[in-house]
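Collaboration report, partner site 2.

Our partner group contributed sequences for two proteins of shared interest, and the home lab folded both. The records are reproduced in the order in which they were received, starting with the first partner submission.
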Amino acid sequence: LTDKQAIALLGGLLATSLTVLLQMNWFSVAVGSASMFLVVVYPLAKRYTYWPQFVLGATLNWGVLIAWAELLPRDQFYTVLPLYVSTVLHTVIYDTIYSQVLPTIGLTFNWGALLGWSAIEGSLSSAPIALYLAALQWTLLYDTIYAHQDKTDDIMIGVKSTALRFGDNTKPWLCGFGTAAIAGLGLTGYIVEQTWPYYIALAGTAAHLAWQVCTVNINDSNDCWKKFKSNQWMGAILFAGIVAGTYLKKEKKDSHSKVNNDDLDEF
């Protein structure tokens, strides 16, 4: 792209994003607008820090906070933080394996988590914050894996990343990110009173992350790429658990309401 084409594309994307954002409540709009700071910082972070994956995770998972702000009361916003942290750590793991260049991606990519929540609830509570932090950890995980693919070129051009920062000690860091991500997702489920299907899926998610960390060869670009791409299946497992768990929770709630109504009728 030429400079003019890039500017035109940016303008179009920003206009489209703003159009969507304005359909939400004003608290969600504020949360979504705040993510622009991370969007601007992320490209610069690669040149000044070894943790661009963290910024990536924070950005990618911001939607957790936005969704919470749209859906739930503002005084419950803190409940989403563990989930947000978990997703950020996951991003760090898989992107570190890729090239070790993007910690800042986590903060930016996951901003949508906050935006989505705020759009539905009009406020942010602990659940979306937990979700956002979980997503940030996930981003740190997968983006660190991703960064390992480019570490040779990054050294040549002077670009930094978590992959370069961690070096041969990458796996212990990935393990930490993955653990924090699962903990955040678990805390989020507890806060929102998820049912057993969610936790079954969470166990599968934990197993998948453990497989990635234990088997990835950070010095093999092809293997890093395979592990990075495998995160789509991890996401599918977790999503299925969220859907099934939420459906069961709704069924239980409806059943409980019916029982109460029957008791009132008998009374």
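Second partner submission, folded after the first:
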Amino acid sequence: MELSAIQVTLVVIFGFLMNYERWITTIGLWQALMCGIITGFIVGDVQTGLFVGGTLQLMTLGISSFGGASVPDYPVAAIVGTYLAVATGQSGSVGVTIGIPVAIIMVQLDVLNKTVNIFFQHQAEKDVAEGKFDKVVFWQWAGNILTMISTGVPILLAVIFGQGLVNKIFEVIPDWLLTGLQVAGGILPAVGLGLLLKTMPVKSQWPALLVGFVLTAYLKVPVLGVGLLAVAWAYITYQNHKKMQVLEGKITNAGPVLSHMTNESGVIDDDE
């Protein structure tokens, strides 16, 4: 699919702004799902963007960055995978397959970005101690710009060189290998769900999992319907839990009163 210069430019601009939004405004546009949808909208194939972004979003479930640790950058993978899949006329599964190594490579760039930003942080602390507050703003923006560059430049390179490189690769890839990659891409959502289930109390809440499976597999209830039932179940459970807490509190508070009203034999005195 031939993309216009405006479409290519918008994808690159979004690649720069996405990482700024991730750390500054944090609206949520940096999530892999949203990156796939927005990129798909720009290049004119929202369905592929939704598939690539949604699949990669599933892979992020159960994976979080704590204490400055770097994790695979699936949002960048969603942008690159969606763009290259549409630009080369390939399926969304191929876009996911392309995106996974991109996400892993981005780990190293994230480490480099955070390492340099530590220098900016120390310089800002030094200027604060010296009362040079105007320079603190400079170091803050230096960190912001570097953060945007750390994702924008790789996406720019993928846009410039990726399409031709991917086309050449697909010319030499045999059909059986391409089919295998597509099958692997179809399995990845199950991997994401498996990671999610590992973080959930499945052993104690297995009836809910069983009900959802029966509704979907046997009764053919749409995902939205199952989701609404899950919300109702969660609300009822929450309300019952609150009532139990109130009841336990009343029992606890009534303990001293009952103790005061009973005689030595443990029988409530009628005089009380």
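Feedback sent to the partner group on the second submission included the following. The mean pLDDT is 80. The first helix runs from residue 5 to 25.
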